[in-house]
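To the wet lab folks,

You asked to see what we're planning to order before we commit. Fair enough. Below is the target structure as tokens, and below that is the sequence we designed to fit it. If anything looks off to you, flag it before the synthesis order goes out.
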């Protein structure tokens, strides 16, 4: 598995690190260092971050928020996380650009595929924020869409677990990990890897997903070096 261009999907929850809410500066710095290592390997990197550490539209809808406004709040949360990561990257000498799916200059440039690819080819890490810009879509779907658009070789989904299991390993000690699995198996077994919209987009556009534990320092470099430390999802 040698990748020229990747879409790295980071979870907002992971950015909380040891905190109950918001951004843990230690975790943010570790993520930035790992991304710098990957960047120094010559890999072109696009990033999508969730917003669950700040606000999650779906859970907001359950508490009386209008779903559309809730999702828009979630999109803003991803922009906050993207600015935090870009700041951490620039502090250690990695050039990066924040693109937004909703117009919000001067916070970030309005996203389009060609601009994103051009920046990556120029050696910038590109962080694509605000999801798809539409309500009812998760950041998983946002990362599937962006991964397909920027013609990434793979979507690397950095989570808190080291791959896909038969059940939730945090709840079920008998859960067994898959080394690789097909999209059809995910559907048939009813496994929660990403939401169905995101999974279907990857399947139909032949974008493989590699699920791994991003919270262990050095894992991103291991994945890019070809070490098998997660689960590959493919057609």
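Sequence we intend to order:
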């Amino acid at each position: 598995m040698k990748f020229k261009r990747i879409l790295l999907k980071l979870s907002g929850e992971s950015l909380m690190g040891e905190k109950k809410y918001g951004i843990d500066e230690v975790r943010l710095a570790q993520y930035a260092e790992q991304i710098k290592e990957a960047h120094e390997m010559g890999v072109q990197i696009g990033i999508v971050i969730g917003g669950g550490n700040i606000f999650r539209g779906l859970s907001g809808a359950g508490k009386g928020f209008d779903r559309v406004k809730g999702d828009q709040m979630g999109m803003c949360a991803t922009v906050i996380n993207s600015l935090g990561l870009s700041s951490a990257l620039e502090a250690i000498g990695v050039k990066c650009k924040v693109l937004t799916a909703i117009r919000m200059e001067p916070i970030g440039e309005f996203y389009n595929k060609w601009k994103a690819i051009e920046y990556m080819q120029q050696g910038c890490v590109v962080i694509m924020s605000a999801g798809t810009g539409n309500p009812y879509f998760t950041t998983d779907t946002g990362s599937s869409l962006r991964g397909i658009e920027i013609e990434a070789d793979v979507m690397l989904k950095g989570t808190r677990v080291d791959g896909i299991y038969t059940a939730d390993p945090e709840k079920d000690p008998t859960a067994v990990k898959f080394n690789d699995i097909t999209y059809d198996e995910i559907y048939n077994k009813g496994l929660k890897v990403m939401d169905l919209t995101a999974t279907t987009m990857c399947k139909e556009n032949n974008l493989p997903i590699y699920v791994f534990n991003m919270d262990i320092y050095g894992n991103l470099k291991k994945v890019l070096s070809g070490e098998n430390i997660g689960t590959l999802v493919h057609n």
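Structural context that might help your review: The chain has one domain: 5-234. The two ends are 15 Å apart (CA to CA).

Thanks,
Computational group
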